[in-house]
Amino acid sequence: MWIYEKKLEYPIRVSYTNPRLAKEIITQYGGPDGELAASLRYLTQRYTMPTPQAKAVLTDIGTEELAHMEIVAALVYNLIKNATVEEIKAAGLDDYYADHDKALYFVNAAGAPWVASYIQSKGDPVTDLHEDMAAEQKARSTYEYLIRLSDDPDVTDALRFLREREIVHFQRFGETLNLVHEWMDSKKVF
Amino acid sequence: MDQRRRELLRIMELEFAAIELNLFLDTHPDEPRALADYNAVAQELMRAKTAYESRYGPILNYGQSMSQETWRWVEDPWPWEITFNR
Amino acid sequence: MADTKPNTPNNTSPQEGETTGYFGELARAYIVPQMYSRIWSPAEGLMKGTIFPELYRPYEPGMRP
């Protein structure tokens, strides 16, 4: 089970109302390489991991991704909470507003809703860990594009934090892959 | 930054170090220096959370924290309502 | 600082023709395991996104990894 902690993982700041930036950043909430996809991918792959360490890594990184999802949501919420309808129209967020007002919904930057086909759960630990390492790189790339798009240094600060986490997670998944390879080799001996 | 945010930031710092050491230990469970650092950070984090909760109410739900006198879990602000603007 | 020597899995040997760097096994991805060394303070770690100096790879727009 999970326990909720009434705090964010990282302290966020938002300089000013900015629905255009919210429209871009929301892809890390509900887009193909976003934090919902990341957390659900790892938390559903863990059941068929063969070693206790691999189960721990998938559980712990999957849980941290839920905290990242909450950071992205908090950024979007604070970027649009004071926006007027005129500002929303000018930013191109009016299509989203028509369906969701200023509520949080899982969409990519172009408004396409989240789908389970963003993720895979293959039952082969080597295959799944390769997907996970690729997912961390895809998310890192996305955060770099968002940093280039961002005109708010306070939001960029949080994006930099989230990007760096992708690098650390990549390392941990790589180490897990090594351990799974070692485990497979040890099975071959007997 | 007000007192509440300063205390919350300290909890975030300690818990982040705990997250990092936790993930490191997942793939290096036999590294005694990382384990010692993890236990030291965990102890300091527990102290910081207990002090924060005595002033601002539970930071954890489902029996992981106690609430004095009234049920303060339901009080605002929620995490997405606390920004750390300069 | 972390040991940056290439690590070779104990069940593999250098591939013929290889002269430098990491020797792994063909058709198998391998990540150099991190060694435990210096860590940043919790405050500095949170601001940087990692407590491990050797994993810190800050991004500047325009650069390509």
Per DSSP, the total helix count of chain A is: 8
Radius of gyration of chain C: 16 Å
SSE string of chain C, helices as H and strands as E: H
Instruction: List the uncertain runs of chain A.
Output: none
Shape of chain C: flat
Could you tell me how far the N terminus lies from the C terminus of chain A, measured between alpha carbons in angstroms?
Answer: 36 Å
Q: What's the overall average pLDDT of chain A, rounded?
A: 97
Q: Could you explain the architecture of this structure?
A:
The complex is a heterotrimer of chains A (190), B (86) and C (65). Chain A has 190 residues and is mainly α. In chain A, 67% of the residues lie in helices and 0% in strands. Chain A contains eight helices and no strands. The longest helix of chain A has 37 residues, at 153-189. Chain A is elongated, with a radius of gyration of 18 Å. Chain A starts with 18 loop residues before the first helix and ends with a helix. Chain B is an all-alpha fold. Chain B has helices at 3-27, 32-56. Chain C has 65 residues and is largely without helices or strands. The two termini of chain C are 22 Å apart. Chains in contact: A-B, A-C, B-C. Chain A binds chain C through residues 10, 130, 133, 140, 143-144, 147-148, 160-165, 167-168, 170-171, 174-175, 177-178, 181-182, 185, and chain C through 9, 11, 28-31, 33-34, 46-50, 52, 55-59, 61, 65.
Q: SSE layout and pairings?
A:
The complex is a heterotrimer of chains A (190), B (86) and C (65).
Chain A: H1 19-25, H2 27-30, H3 35-45, H4 52-80, H5 85-91, H6 94-100, H7 125-149, H8 153-189
Helix pairs in contact in A: 1-4, 3-4, 3-7, 4-8, 7-8
Chain B: H1 3-27, H2 32-56
Helix pairs in contact in B: 1-2
Chain C: H1 42-48
What does this entry show, briefly?
The complex is a heterotrimer of chains A (190), B (86) and C (65). With 190 residues, chain A is mainly α. Chain A contains eight helices and no strands.
